[in-house]
Design a protein that fits this description.
Number of domains: 2
Bound molecules: pyridoxal-5'-phosphate
Number of strands: 17
Strand order of the largest sheet: 4-12-11-10-7-5-6
Low-confidence stretches: none
Shape: globular
CATH topology of the largest domain: Aspartate Aminotransferase, domain 2
Mean pLDDT: 97
Strand content: 15-25%
Number of helices: 13
């Protein structure tokens, strides 16, 4: 007899680890085994697990009101929008439940903007190695064979350019292009940062041609690189930005932030969401933002990121046969491997350190932004053990 089809749709290759609890930078199995979490749910649990202030705010909101339709005014949603506007380039925010939904709105916003301008600008330029989510629109945007194969006709309007090819970008970016969509630091693509001068150059090209600049900061945003948003390092601002992952600290929440100009055609009825911006998510999101913007928080991310990076350089020097390069910024770091990345992730897991593989044979190190220096030292001891075991 054939094995029964799994009750759970088998779209993930899961390890058998099953965690029962989280505490700060640690995940704990039922057996009591403790794992140092350098994944943060892939850049989601930015303030670690079970942060007392987030637990408190979620409990309080849960006792008051979980859900109310966006037909009504939601004060927590307005407060979070105002806080995000105060801390960023944006004039306005729309809340979603995920990064993928943020990508969908960003694409719609670009299309509607040019439609209402009466101009047939339909091409959105994207880049190889990009990841914008798994919806039909988001896979079309990223354009990789791996994500799109077998899923039928793709949403038209995207053109994927090679990563880091300035000539290809200059040739493609003219005044027929609607927008450029890019991650300031590619996450799934292998922790590939766009150098500041390239992001500045891209902003200039967009200004010259009128194309909108759409940044996907779903993974690199919310303090990950040591600034609230990664593009701040380059001293530029996008027209539209996708946010998710870290903004909810583990509660599902995403957002599209935009300038008044880019958002100008999104009038009542042009977009919506049942759950987007619900009171639970917004209460948690506001607390996350409040903590991240407290004096010294982001500086500490940079300092700890520099410490981790320095230690990783030492590891690389000790194991040149295993590792090739350290990449990234702040606490969004990647180790490009010579050995197979999945073998290193496995060996680290055996040493009770959790890491995430990425494309380009990279392992990602995405600890909670609240990681301590002692925990960084402990992680290096475990990575050292993992590298030696190969
Ligand atoms: C994770 C991710 C997304 C998709 O977010 P979901 O919340 O999984 O829908 C989009 N863009 C980037 C850069 C991401 O890392």
């Amino acid at each position: 007899m054939n094995a029964p089809f799994p009750a759970l749709l088998p779209t993930y290759n899961r390890t058998p680890l099953r965690f029962e609890r989280g505490e700060g930078s640690w995940l704990i199995e039922a057996s009591g085994d403790r794992y140092l979490d350098f994944t943060s749910g892939i850049a989601v649990n930015a303030l670690g697990h079970a942060h007392p202030a987030l637990v408190e705010v979620l409990k309080t909101q849960a006792e008051a009101l979980w859900h109310v339709s966006n037909l009504y005014t939601i004060p927590a949603q307005e407060a979070l929008a105002e806080a995000l506007v105060a801390h960023t380039f944006a004039d306005t925010a729309f809340f979603t439940n995920s990064g993928t939904e943020a990508a969908e709105l960003a694409i719609k916003m670009v299309r509607k903007y040019w439609h209402d301008q009466g101009q047939a600008r339909e091409t959105i330029l994207t880049f190889e190695g990009a990841f914008h989510g798994r919806s039909t629109g988001a896979i079309a945007a990223a354009g990789s064979e791996k994500m799109t194969k077998g899923f039928g006709a793709l949403m038209p309007g995207f053109r994927t350019l090679p990563w880091g090819d300035h000539d290809a970008l200059r040739d493609a970016l003219d005044d027929t292009v609607a927008a450029v969509m890019i991650e300031p630091v590619q996450g799934e693509g292998g922790i590939r940062p766009l150098p500041d001068q390239c992001l500045k150059g891209l902003r200039d090209l967009c200004d010259q041609t009128g194309a909108l600049l759409v940044l996907d900061e779903v993974q690199c945003g919310m303090g990950r690189t040591g600034r609230l948003f990664a593009h701040e390092w380059a001293g530029i601002a996008p027209d539209i930005m996708m946010v998710a992952k870290g903004i909810g600290g583990g509660f599902p929440l995403g957002a599209v932030l935009a300038t008044a100009k880019a958002a100008s055609s999104m009038s009542a009825g042009t977009h919506g969401s049942t759950y987007g911006g619900n009171p639970l998510a917004c209460a948690v999101g506001a607390k996350v933002l409040e903590i991240m913007t407290e004096d010294g928080f982001l500086d500490a991310v940079s300092r700890k990121g520099a410490l981790l990076r320095q230690k990783l350089e030492g590891l690389l020097a000790a194991h040149p046969e295993v590792f090739e390069e350290v990449r990234g910024q702040g606490l969004m770091l990647g180790l490009k491997c010579r050995a197979q990345n999945s073998d290193i992730v496995k060996a680290a897991q055996t040493a009770h350190l959790l890491t995430v593989p990425a494309a380009d044979n990279v392992i990602r190190l995405l600890p909670p932004l609240t990681i301590t220096e002692e925990e960084i030292t402990e992680a290096l001891t475990r990575l050292e053990r993992a590298a030696s075991s190969l």
